[in-house]
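Dear H.,

Thanks for agreeing to be a second pair of eyes. The structure we're designing against is below in token form, covering all 357 positions.
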């Protein structure tokens, strides 16, 4: 198993690459969508939270990720000894009508095909995605981790309607007519996801790119009045069963799975890694379940992280684990220290589990 490091778009620079290497990472998971683009000032501390208007503005619908820019970042990372394992998340600007079943759906499927082919040509093996109308919303921050370290969490259900022009917690059309998105049923959402896989899986297979599904974060039954796709561990199976290809895989977020109200986390780790569908792992810990949970340091939450590593090893998982995000520590560099603590713990844990006989 390999230690990876997740970096947001605005962190893709030499200093952050050096920092990841210093933390012991060999791999990177890169966010190419800039969640903070229009709202950097409201979201200090490099943890996207947002409010009713989301993380901010989506990108340029006409500007697809180019071979040149992705190759450049891949090369720069390589010059620091880091391999890019995955790009995490599509830009709502490129696929809002795939999520919403809107008039631009077919055009946007073509965009996603182009992006997948480009990522494959660059030689990045995985794209993580989150098939969600509300996206990652409704989280708060507070001094809830050990020693009062600031961490994200949830206190109550969050069902404020989503205004038109917004999806996946980002605004893709600032000039949308007033009003809110119509609520759909869970079946409609599954149908949309099924179509997404039907259209894109052949392209992903040909391009040599794995599409890895993130569970719903936070995994409440609804969020902003919209259904969730994978808000219980067994629902991952439904997504997998839609396509037998191992390119149809999971961005396996332990924190989110532990926040779910049903099922047993260790069984889920065993089940999905045994099926060889875990593309990469978000290795973070939490206390509680939706709608009342908070993130913790990697060694203090509800999850026995060493047990998870032993199961993964037992099932032959050899992929990348990243801390995703971590509580921020009280010092001059809160984000850096939180991530460094998580990586140090993970490095030692991996060493000890890999050496187990
Ligand atoms: O939670 C976050 O802030 C992100 O770092 C991701 O873990 C996010 O949940 C996934 O990329 C799904 O969009």
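And this is the sequence the design step returned. I haven't edited it by hand at all.
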């Amino acid at each position: 198993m390999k230690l990876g490091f997740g970096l947001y778009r605005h962190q893709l620079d030499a200093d952050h690459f050096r920092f990841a290497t210093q933390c012991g990472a060999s791999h990177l998971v890169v966010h190419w969508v800039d969640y903070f683009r229009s709202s950097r000032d409201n979201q200090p501390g490099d943890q996207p939270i947002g409010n009713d208007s989301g993380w901010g503005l989506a990108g340029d619908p006409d500007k697809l990720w180019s071979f040149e820019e992705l190759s450049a970042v891949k090369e720069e990372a390589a010059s620091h000894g880091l391999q890019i394992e995955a790009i995490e998340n599509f830009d709502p600007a490129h696929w809002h009508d795939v999520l919403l079943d809107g008039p631009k759906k077919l055009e946007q499927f073509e965009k996603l095909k182009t992006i997948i082919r480009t990522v494959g040509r660059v030689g990045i093996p995985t794209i993580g995605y989150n098939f969600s109308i509300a996206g990652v919303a409704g989280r708060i921050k507070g001094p809830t981790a050990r020693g009062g370290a600031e961490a994200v969490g949830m206190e109550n259900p969050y069902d404020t309607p989503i205004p038109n022009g917004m999806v996946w917690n980002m605004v893709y059309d600032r000039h949308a007519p007033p009003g809110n998105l119509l609520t759909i049923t869970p079946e409609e959402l599954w149908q949309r996801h099924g179509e997404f896989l039907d259209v894109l899986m052949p392209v992903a297979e040909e391009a040599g790119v794995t599409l890895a599904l993130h569970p719903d974060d936070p995994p409440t039954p609804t969020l902003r009045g919209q259904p969730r796709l994978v808000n219980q561990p067994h629902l991952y199976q439904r997504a997998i069963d839609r396509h037998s290809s191992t390119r149809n895989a999971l961005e396996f977020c332990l924190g989110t799975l532990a926040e779910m109200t049903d099922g047993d986390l260790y069984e889920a780790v065993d089940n999905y890694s045994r099926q060889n569908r875990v593309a990469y792992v978000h290795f973070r810990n939490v206390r509680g379940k939706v709608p009342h949970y908070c993130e913790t340091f990697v060694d203090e939450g509800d999850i026995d992280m060493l047990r998870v590593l032993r199961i993964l090893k037992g099932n032959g998982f050899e992929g990348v684990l990243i801390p995703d995000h971590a509580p921020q520590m009280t010092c001059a560099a809160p984000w850096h220290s939180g991530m460094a603590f998580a990586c140090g713990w993970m490095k030692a844990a991996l060493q000890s589990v890999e050496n187990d006989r």
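Two observations from my side: The radius of gyration is 19 Å. The chain has one domain: 2-355.

Warmly,
E.
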